[in-house]
Amino acid sequence: MAAGGLLRVGDTLHLGKADWVFGDRSMTVRVSDIRYGLDDDSPVVGILATITLAGRDGRMAAIGVYKSALARPGVLQRHQPPNGVDPFPATHP
Fold first, then answer.
1. pLDDT for the residue 86
2. Which is it for the CA torsion 3, 34, 78, 18, positive or negative?
3. pLDDT, average across residues 55-63
4. Are 19 and 41 in contact (CB under 8 A)?
C-alpha cells in the first residue's frame, strides 16, 4: 500500500494489544497527527491520537502503531466527512 494511503488524519483505529508498541490493552483511537514513519522503512508509525474507547476517553496519547496492523481487516476505519467532501484528500500537491 502506498505511504499516503496507509493512514490519514481523522481515521479511527481499533487496536488490539499486539497492534501498538508497549500495548497493555485494546483501545480505539482517532488519529490527530502523524509524527513519523510513513515515508521510511520503519515498521512503526508514530501518531498522536485521541482515545475514544478504553476507559480514558478524550485523552491524547502519543503511540507507535505497527504498519503490519494497519493492513489487517477491522483495524483501520476511514474518516467519513459529514457533507461528502473530504477536507484532507489523500493526494497533496
1. 65
2. positive
3. 86
4. no
Strand partners, 39: none
Whole-number average pLDDT of the chain = 84
What per-residue confidence (pLDDT) applies to 88?
61
Per-residue confidence (pLDDT) for residue 4, from 0 to 100: 52
Give 89's contacts (C-beta < 8 A, 6+ positions apart).
none
Calpha distance 26→46 (Å, rounded): 17
Q: How far apart are CA 16 and CA 54, in angstroms?
A: 11
- Give me the mean pLDDT over the 39-58 stretch: 87
The answer to whether 9 touches 75, Cβ cutoff 8 Å, is no
**Amino acid making up residue 5:** G
Strands (E) in 1-93, as ranges, are 12-15, 27-36, 44-53, 60-66, 76-77
- Residues in Cβ contact with 83 at an 8 Å cutoff, skipping those fewer than 6 apart: none
